[in-house]
Write a structure and sequence with these properties.
This protein is of the alpha/beta class. Helix content is about 35%, strand content about 15%. Strands 1-2-3-4-5 form a 5-stranded mixed β-sheet. The protein is globular.
Length: about 190
């Protein structure tokens, strides 16, 4: 039998305990690299069931004012996709808490070495799932990934329901895959 993922095991444990899972969202690099690491580590130590780590984006129009402000602070602190993945790698060295990487499509599509290499880095950093909030579901086609499993921290505690920011979202466990399509990435997105 296949080994259960950290996320699946967490939701099964919460179900057995007859409680909802506590899924916490924190923006990577907010307020800065070390402050972000300290806050994320504290959330894991405090018992958060799943940690969702946001990749800062220069146009977070689908998010509310608090997340928008966090993204502005993080970008001012020098956040990049690679930097957020290194932050997650550090967290993974000391915590087994499931980690979901949340990103708008543009930071994923704008990586100079392409989507496949980015997906490899996401997996290697220890990310358990990727939630890509897109203005169109077709902006990032992850359907070619083996074992695609949607993730949601909402929907009655079910990890099988798709949700996210904007008008649609795609989510998957990280795998080496490609198939990017849709709008061209913005040039002002930090990579």
């Amino acid at each position: 039998a296949a080994q259960m993922s950290r996320i699946d095991a967490t939701f099964e444990r919460c179900k057995a305990e007859k409680r909802a899972a506590l899924v916490a969202y924190l923006t990577g690099f907010d307020p800065d690299l070390e402050g972000s690491f300290e806050r994320m580590s504290a959330a894991c130590h405090a018992g958060v069931d799943v940690l969702e780590v946001g990749v800062p984006f220069s146009d977070p129009s689908a998010d509310g004012p608090d997340v928008q402000a966090a993204m502005v602070r993080a970008l001012k602190a020098g956040s990049t996709m690679r930097g957020v993945l290194e932050l997650i790698r550090r967290l993974r060295e000391v915590h087994e808490t499931p980690i979901v990487l949340f990103s708008y499509c543009n930071p994923l599509l704008s990586q100079p070495d392409g989507v496949e290499a980015t997906m490899g880095r996401i997996k290697d950093a220890g990310v358990d799932a990727l939630a890509a909030g897109c203005s169109r579901l077709t902006a990032l086609d992850l359907s070619g990934c083996a074992g695609v499993t949607p993730f949601s921290g909402g929907a009655a505690g079910s990890p099988s329901a798709v949700s996210g920011a904007g008008t649609g979202s795609a989510a998957t466990h990280p795998r080496e895959c490609g198939g990017a399509a849709g709008p061209l990435p913005r040039s002002d997105v930090a990579t």
